[in-house]
TrEMBL record:
Keywords: DNA-binding, Transcription, Transcription regulation. The keyword Nucleotide-binding does not apply. It comes from Paenibacillus radicis (ex Xue et al. 2023). Gene3D superfamilies: Homeodomain-like. The keyword Acetylation does not apply. This is Helix-turn-helix domain-containing protein. PANTHER family: ARAC-FAMILY TRANSCRIPTIONAL REGULATOR, HTH-TYPE TRANSCRIPTIONAL REGULATOR EXSA. InterPro entries: CdaR_GGDEF, Homeodomain-like_sf, HTH_AraC, HTH_AraC-typ_CS, Tscrpt_reg_AraC-type_HTH. Residues 692-791 form the HTH araC/xylS-type domain.
């Protein structure tokens, strides 16, 4: 409708349409909000007005009900009435009828004072009588006179009056002087008297019609239904018969809602119920008003709001169509022009402005790619050229043309090489991985390259390239002395090492070549840097290794190219390991390493040979241990091989020393535990043998009266106290107890043979005194030898 150009669901046309509709819907939404707020305000005002009117009803009716309570109070505390429930008439029975008459006269006086009370009386449950103003009647006659109706029987009336602790307002029906039934609100109050005495009840009534006349002029009375409920939710007063019908369906079985206002629906019609509690009693005042009455005043506002919304929508739609057509035509023509003259296709989900931006961006991106590719190729080609210079392949490249192409101009003909080996970069890699999906290795090389070249440019020129995963910096010196140049090279290396570790947590080991002249000397400088880097095994990682200093040390060192590790020291180390003495074994290992590497210089091949010899010593020691192969330490056959691989791949002597010391500790710990275990087992076997000898000695000499701890100690050349403790710790029983039990076991066998008497048996088992034998026998067996013999005879 707005042109032949195809419009997708993300078209700018749709965006504009939604924008215009949002502007259009804003006043509509504001109108709805104003209408809702106005309606809420009107409803709240009506609710407040209803609550205020209901409070007026409560004020009027509370005064009426307060009159009933006040009359009840005066009746209850009337002295003559109180005497009816006392013991007076047991002494003066003739005064009973006289007092009844006097009470009726008092009631007549109360009737005159309380003109708003339609009827009141006192019911006496004992004599079953009713006291009225100026007269008293029997209860059946009084019922016939005041309450006889089809809906309220005599039994119901009596049960109502005789309820225990009954006090409060209840609905009731009475018959007036003309015989007409009247709905009334009755206040029932039971007299509190002691057990066994006459009981009574006050009944005070006001007709419902009198109550309704007091509030019929209020606006709330005419609009809805007014109800007064007692504590049990029984209807006391209602403004209409419909009120009684509605009340039956309101769920008063549960507590009333916490709010003073709530909605209720009956037969498809909604009602709005307002209720309040009496300030003086437990009565509830309710107003039930149909919800339609609330909306009579809001109907005009609603119609006006609907009309304004419809007019706004119709006018807004026409204006939206007009401005959309006018504003979209230039955009449509511009998109068509780009589509015909560009290879860029509009992507699904993009609007026309995105297509135009995409076409422009595509041109800029292509231009940027061309420039980036040119820079990238330039950097790769320059790095390749520097690499060929370092490797001495000058005959394969046109040097002068390449220098001009890559904008490289050498200041002098003096060169040196700095080799950079990354020793530590784990912290750097972790930080980069937290930032995003960047290649940490390439970023690290970029940082190192820029730092080295910037530091070199402070005094000289530096060109960094990568050869076999190692960064190499070619230094072209400015004019100066070689001594100053070497100091500056060391300063560059030290500053680069410190800066990269502090800022980026990149640990470097750097090697510096000597100074060489002409282009042909560049390859020699590169080889010198490689040679110096090899010495990080001896001198440690994160160091600055100078080729000149290393070879000066070689020249200063004597012709002895061996190392200190004699056979007797090796055997001493093996012996310490066998006995598990880790302290001495470690001390010996440290002395070997310190004695070899504390001298001025030690070549890399000799250092490797020494460390491999130490590894060989560890392997020979493990082989001589025998059952060490079955220990938990190296239960996996591959564990020794992995350890050897870790040792041989160490890059410094210190790392090798740490690995060997760690494994040495594990081996010593195992051998020490094994040796201690063997000592304990040997000691236990010796103790078992000695205890067995003591027991055998007791068995052989139990009949000797002189057999005791001292005699046994003397025989085995041991102190009696130590012998006794040793025996008890090993067997769990005392040595003297063992002697006595052995003698008693022999005695029991002799008693069982029935050939000897008790005295003979005592002498045969080593007791000189038969009484001592009897006491000992009873102590251990619980019975005397004579009883034991009787048991065996039976």
């Amino acid at each position: 409708m707005l042109g032949k150009f195809k419009i997708n669901r993300r078209s700018v046309l749709l965006t504009w349409l939604l924008s215009y509709l949002a502007v259009l819907l804003l006043p509509v939404a504001m109108s709805v909000i104003v209408y809702i707020k106005s309606s809420d305000t009107l409803v709240n005002e009506i609710h407040q007005a209803n609550e205020s009117l209901l409070k007026q009803v409560r004020e009027v009716m509370d005064n009426q009900f307060a009159t009933m309570e006040r009359l009840n109070f005066e009746l209850t505390w009337n002295m003559r009435v109180r005497q009816l429930f006392s013991n007076k008439y047991q002494i003066y029975p003739n005064e009973y009828l006289y007092d009844l008459h006097q009470i009726t006269q008092d009631l007549l006086m109360y009737k005159t004072s309380y003109s708003l009370i339609d009827l009141f009386y006192i019911y006496l449950s004992g004599p079953n009588k009713v006291l009225l103003p100026d007269l008293y009647r029997d209860a059946p006659f009084a019922y016939e006179l005041m309450h006889k109706t089809n809906s309220f029987s005599y039994d119901q009336w009596i049960n109502t009056l005789n309820q225990k602790e009954k006090k409060g307002f209840i609905p009731m029906v009475r018959v007036d002087e003309n015989g007409k039934q009247r709905k009334t609100v009755a206040y029932i109050s039971r007299y509190r008297i002691e057990s066994g005495e006459t009981e009574g009840t006050n009944v005070i009534m006001i007709d419902q019609s009198r109550i309704l006349r007091a509030i019929e002029n209020m606006e709330l009375f005419n609009k809805g239904h007014v109800l007064i409920l007692n504590e049990a939710n029984e209807l006391l007063v209602s403004s209409s018969n419909d009120s009684e019908r509605l009340l039956h369906d309101i769920p008063f079985g549960q507590e009333m809602p916490g709010s003073k206002f709530f909605f209720w629906e009956k037969d498809g019609q909604k009602y709005e119920i307002t209720y309040i509690q009496s300030d003086r009693s437990k009565l509830k005042y309710l107003s039930i008003i149909p919800s339609l009455l609330f909306w009579e005043k809001a109907e005009q506002i609603r119609k006006l709001t609907y009309m304004s919304i419809i007019i706004s929508l119709l006018g807004g739609c026409l204006l939206t169509y007009f401005f959309l057509r006018k504003n979209y035509n230039p955009v449509r023509r511009l998109v068509r022009a780009f589509s015909e003259k560009s290879d860029v296709l509009q992507k699904p989900g993009h609007d026309e402005f995105s297509f135009i931006q995409q076409a422009v961006d595509n041109t800029l991106v292509e231009l940027a790619k061309i420039m980036s590719e040119r820079k990238k190729q330039h950097h790769i080609l320059r790095s390749n050229f520097v690499g060929r210079l370092l490797k001495g392949k000058l005959d394969q490249i046109p040097v002068d043309e390449s220098l001009a192409t890559f904008n490289m101009r050498f200041i002098t003909d003096d060169f040196a090489v700095i080799l950079l080996y990354v020793q530590e970069s784990s912290s750097f890699h972790e930080r980069i991985q937290q930032i995003g999906p960047t290649d940490p290795q390439k970023l690290m090389q970029f940082i190192i390259t820029n730092v080295i070249e910037e530091l070199a440019l402070q005094h000289h020129q530096g060109f960094v390239t990568e050869i076999e995963e190692t960064l190499v910096c070619l230094i072209n010196f400015s004019p100066g002395t070689n001594e100053d140049r070497m100091q500056q090279l060391v300063a560059i290396a030290r500053e680069a090492q410190s800066f990269l570790m502090t800022k980026y947590h990149i640990g470097l080991t750097l090697s510096i070549s000597g100074i060489h002249s002409e282009l042909a000397g560049i390859s020699q400088a590169y080889l010198e840097a490689l040679d110096a880097m090899e010495y990080k095994l001896v001198m440690g990682s994160k160091e600055i290794l100078s080729y000149d200093e290393i070879h000066q040390s070689v020249a200063a060192e004597d012709s002895d190219t061996g190392y200190y590790y004699p056979l007797q020291v090796e055997q001493q180390l093996i012996n310490y390991v066998k006995i598990g003495d880790f302290t001495m074994a470690r001390q010996t290992l440290d002395e070997i390493i310190e004695r070899n590497f504390n001298r001025t210089f030690m070549s890399v091949p000799i250092a490797r040979c020494l460390m491999l010899n130490l590894v060989s010593t560890m392997i020979k020691t493990i082989s001589e241990l025998g059952d060490f192969q079955d220990s938990v330490l190296i239960r996996n056959p591959r564990r020794i091989e992995k350890w050897i691989e870790q040792i041989t791949t160490c890059q410094t002597i210190k790392e090798m020393q740490v690995q060997i010391t760690e494994f040495l500790g594990k081996v010593c710990e195992y051998t020490a535990n094994k040796r201690q275990q063997n000592i304990q087992q040997s000691r236990q076997r010796t103790l078992d043998e000695r205890i067995h000898q003591i027991i055998e000695y007791i068995n052989q000499n139990f009949n000797d009266p002189n057999l005791n701890i001292s005699m046994i100690g003397s025989h085995f050349d041991m102190k009696p106290a130590y012998l006794s403790k040793l025996f008890k710790d090993h067997t769990g029983e005392g040595l003297l107890d063992s002697i006595n039990k052995t003698r008693l076991e022999k005695a029991k066998h002799l008693i069982a043979d029935r050939k000897k008497n008790i005295s003979d048996v005592a002498i045969d088992v080593g007791f000189n005194d038969v009484n001592a034998f009897i006491r000992t026998f009873k102590k251990y067996e619980g019975i005397t030898p004579g009883k034991y013999k009787e048991m065996k005879d039976q």
